[in-house]
Structure formats: structure tokens, C-alpha cells
Amino acid sequence: MLDEAHIGQATAGGKSAVRYKVAGMDCPSCATKIETAVGRLPGIEDVSLSYHSQVLKLRLDETATPRERLEGTIRSLGFGVEDMDHIQVVAKGEADTGTTDSAGQLWWTTPKARLTGLIGLLVAVGFLISWILPALADYALVPAALVGLVVFGRRALTLARVGSPFSIEMLMSIATAGALIIGETAEASIVVLLFAVGELLEGVAAGSARSGIAALAALVPRTALVIDGETAREVPASRLEIGQVVLVRPGDRIPADGEVVDGESDVDESPITGESVPVPKQVGSPVIAGGINATGALRVRVTRAAADNTIARIIHLVEEAQASKSPTARFIERFSARYTPFVILVAVLTVLVPPLAFGADWHTWIYRGLALLLIGCPCALVLSTPAAITSGIAAGARRGLLIKGGAALETIGRVRAIAFDKTGTLTQGRPQVTDLVPLTGTDRFLLGMATAVENGSSHPIARAILDRAAGDGVPLRPAREQKALPGRAAQAMVGGKLVEVGSPRYAVERCGSGGMPATRIAALEDEGKTVVVVLADEQPVGLIALRDEPRPDAVRGIAALRKLGVSSVMLTGDNARTGQAIGRKLGVEVKAGLLPEDKLNEIAVLKAEAPVAMVGDGINDGPALAAADVGIAMGGGTDVALETADAALLGNRVEGVADLIALSRATMTNIHQNVAVALGLKAVFLVTTLLGVTDLWLAILADTGATVLVTLNALRLLRRSSAQHNPARASQLSPQDS
Predict the structure, then answer these.
(1) Known catalysed reaction(s) (predicted)?
(2) What is the pLDDT of residues 656-669, one digit of tens each?
(3) Who contacts 210 (Cβ-Cβ below 8 Å, separation ≥6)?
(4) pLDDT digits over 236-266, tens only?
(5) Pair 688, 732: CB distance under 8 Å
(6) Of the listed 421, 629, 659, 703, which one is catalytic?
């Protein structure tokens, strides 16, 4: 995301980086037309226009092309344009998500709607005059056709002049002019009316697609209550500064990323992470902007500015992903670049060959050739892939599935094997006490002795013992002379005795093997557990076993992948005994004792057989994530998760991997449906036109109607049900769930 301070700054070569908001684009070909026109102007480089975010980025030398000329060129093509430098100055301090329509107009107040209304009125008046005065029937509908021809014809000529001669506007203008010349005035007027209606509907549908990401921006409340002394004052949430403390009442949305400094509550983070269960929050817990505070009041210290909060970063990454072209989209663009001139050639031959070679009627074959021109426009075909990719990425983002590009979305659905890291991915990432085995006394006595020694330590085993003691209500006993023996044990004087918590090997060194329950220790270790021995004055008091337990949803997630026909393998650096114990519990194949380079070798073996995805915590799995066909980070919204790999599961849910695959497959099926509709309608109308069945107004429906159908079909992905709320459905998802 460009920082406000950098917008419009001079870059190398005396050029400035500028951005514009472009309004009125209703299909990707619009973006291509603008890029082509702007790129031909002198002094302009690095032109990039995202159809989805409507943001035009370029480097401009104003001595060669003033901004007024640049903006005028865009407006001459029929699009609105607004300098985003101006937007930033007006809305200083507000997060720029790139999703708000700068025009801020309702669809029925747009220029397209006004033009459509005018042409519709002229057509209605023309038919009324034809009915009242039949003698004027040949002329009554000419005004409607001429209005459309002037507007669209002027745009077609401009596009031809700036490098886009084979535009839908040019094809439609030729067809309209030809219909007028051969006396088909009613057909000509209906063609321009249907074209105008089609453009209007395409714009409405495109706006609906963009609203998927705009809905994310709306999650952040407009205002926040900043604690100022003993009072709370209301300020715009966009102006919150790092370090400020805000009050979040029950029912309020959290206004910024931050950390709880006072209070306890449950927070619903499902709109951001997709986690359907409210998350308990207490002092020290991180919170995400847009989460809904459910129960108690919280005081939250702001840790990120509005322009850098989790939602703003997600929106930025999603828009970048939507702007990238998938392999299928690139192929279709290359195909359509050759397809349109071919259709024009066929239309010309249709007009000339029958009359010249066979003496056929000129009027009939000119009419059919004009219909072919309208059928030949590739708008629906070009839109078929990016519309589905856009909706798929937006649908994922709204459910905590961040997909960073169309190529990744396509590839995810083709994977046949998933390689999982163990720690922090399939497991919680922190050990928990699983067994207390007192040799003398009770469980509480054993836990109390160990807790006194480990109090104050940050070691994961110490934290697990302290958490278990707190959960069991074991009081903390006083201790002195606490000391750590790295890699071996912890010591302290408790109740006049030297109490030690250490490994079984250390315990044998201290008291010999005679009093040690070796069989019990071996059995616990066979279960993949870490065992520590508690000693008091060099005598064993008991055993404490710990294990990094699987995530609650890991078994369900692996099962969902299995139903989708995807195998799972766990890659871990742990010893084979620990790895196999976790693997048996989850039902996955295990590759244990792996160094980072060994994980790369395992990924290479899997890739040789079929596309493979790697799932890791995004921190120490970078090489393996990069080596896989698709890297998926478990992240919970962290920087690493958002900036590494090809996709991120913001809710830290193993089931999210199955959701990603199901979403990808649904998206690809949607693309295939769109292509079938676009090409199928054209094929049908091509045959009926050559047979003389299709009128001009039906021919225009072959393009504008197909474009609207393709867009509406893609929008179904935004409404698809999420498998995460019903894991049993993960294997059953299809575009029909949309």
C-alpha cells in the first residue's frame, strides 16, 4: 500500500508516481482499453490499472503530458477519473483501501443510466409515433439510433485512434450504421438500446463484485472511544494513534488492532478470521480491528494505525491478488486478441461472398454480416475468468482464507497431497501436561512441588506445568535459591528440601536407576510424550508427562481432505516416536527427524508425483512453503502469515485447508461454466445468423446478455456457504453451493 507521503513524489528521471480512481469500468477489457490509450501518451511509464480496485497507477513526466491531457484522454473514452492525490489530501488520516467508488453515485444516477433512459424514451416515443402515424415508421426510430451512434461511435473512434480498433463500441457502431443504411431503423434503435442496457447491467454487476471487499472495510467502526484520564472521548477511528487506549463496550466493534490492557471478554472475530466460536480475551491478548466484543468491557492499547491494521492489509493484499492474472485468464486474453479480428473477417466474407459469388441478395447478407459483428464481441469470454477469480478471492477473504493471486487459487484445487508441518500447524505449538504420576503423595502435592521450582521460568515445559497448576487450583508454594541447569533440570529449595525437576537421564544421574519407574517412563515416551522427573533431596517424588497436543480441529481437517481425495503427510523434526504418536492420533503419514533441507527433499518427491501444497506456521517453514506448488501459512493475521506463502489461514484452522481446496474447485467449475456460456451462446447465434433466423437485437444479446450472465454466475461464489461452519459439507462443496 502506498504511503500518503510518497504519492506524487518525484521518481527517477523526473517522473512522478501518480494514482487515479477510474469509474465506469464494467469488464476487464475496459481496463485494457485505458492502459493502451494512456500508455501511448508521451512521458508515461509503468501503467497499471486494476479493474477490480479501479486504481490506475503510472509514472508521469508532466512536461511531456500534463495531468489535464491524461485525464481528458481517459474521460474521452467514456470513463470517470479522479486524482487520488486529491482524495488523500481531503481524507487525510483515513485508511485507503481502494474499494470506495469515488463517484459515490447510486447506479440509477450514473451517466450510463441517464443515457440508457434517454435512448429508451426515444425508442418508446418512436414506436408510439409509428403506431399513430404509420407513414413515419421508417423515420420515427432514427433519433434513438442516432443518439446511440453519436455517443458510442465517438468512443469507438477515440479507442481506434489510441490503439484499440477492435472494440465492442466499434463493432456495435458499424452494425448500427449499417442497419440505418439498409433501412432497418427499428433494428438499429433496438441495438443501441440493448447495448446501453447491457453496459448498465454490467456496471451494476461489477459494482456488486467489488462490494465483496468493500464489506471488509465496513467492518471497522467509524468512531472510537479514547480513554483520556477518567473519561472517554469519541474520535474518528481513522485517526487513532499507536499507544492510545480505547474503551470497547459490549456489542461494540473493535476500532483498531491492539492489545487488551484491562478487562475480560469473548470477541467474535469470525468476519475477519472465519473462526465461528468467540475467542476469550484477557489482559495481554491481541485483538483485531473489526472484531465484535461480546460480553465484558475491554480497554485496548492500539498497536497499529488505521492504514496498517489487519483489515487494511487484507484488503490491500486481496486487491493485489485480484489484479494478478491467472494462467487461464492470460490464455483467454491471448485467444480473444486473435478471435475478434477473425470474427470481423468472417463478417466481411459473409457480406461479400454470397452476393458476389452466387448472386445472393445484398440486403440479406449485409444484415447477416452486421449480426455477426455483434455476436463476435469477446467481452463475455474475456470476463468469464477474472469475474470468477475476483469473486472466489473475495469470498475466501470474508471467511479468513487469504489467497494471494489467481494463479494460486487455480493451483490449490489441483493439489493431490498436503504436507503439514507439525509444531504450530497440526499441533497447538505449546506442550500441555497430560499425565501426573505421583510416586509418593498425591497429584496436588507433586504438582505443587514442581510449580514452586518452575515459577518465574519462561521455558515451555515450565509454562505448561504452571498452567496446569493454575487450572487445578494448586496454591503456589514459596521457594528460594531457584536455579536452572540448561538442558538438564531446574532446582529450588522448597520447604527445606532441594526439589529438582529434570529429565529422566538427569534423575538417574542424581539418584541412580533403582528407584526410577523405567517401565512407566518408557510407556509414556512411546505415546510421544515428554517426561520430567520431580526429585526431593535426590529421591523421586513423581513423573509429569507433557505433549504438544493436536489442534482441536486437526482430525476433522484431515478427514475433510481425505473426502476431497487429497492425501496428507506430516513433516517434523521431532523424533520418530513422538511423530508417529501424533500421526496415529490424526491419521496421517509421518516423516520424522527431518532437518529443513530434508523437508525440501520430501516436497520434491511429492511434487514429482502430483501437485502438492505445504502448510506451515509461516515463521520457520519458508523454504518448504516456497518449494511447494502452493504454500499455505497458518497465521492468525500475523505479518509473517500475510506476507509469506501463496495463501494464509487467518483463523489458524486446519479445516481451512479443505475449505481452500473446495473454494478453488468451485471457482474453476464456475470458470468452466462461464466459458461454456460465452462460447455456447456465440456458437448458437452464429449458426442461427447464417441461417437467417437471428435478428440484430438478438445478436447484441449474444454479447451483452452473455456478459451479464457470466458476471451473475461469478457473483454466486460470494454467496456460497462456508464449509467451516459445517465440516461434514467440506467434501460436498460445488458451485451449486453458491
Answers:
(1) Zn(2+)(in) + ATP + H2O = Zn(2+)(out) + ADP + phosphate + H(+)
(2) 999 999 999 999 99
(3) 52, 53, 54, 99, 101
(4) 998 999 999 999 999 899 999 999 999 999 9
(5) no
(6) 421
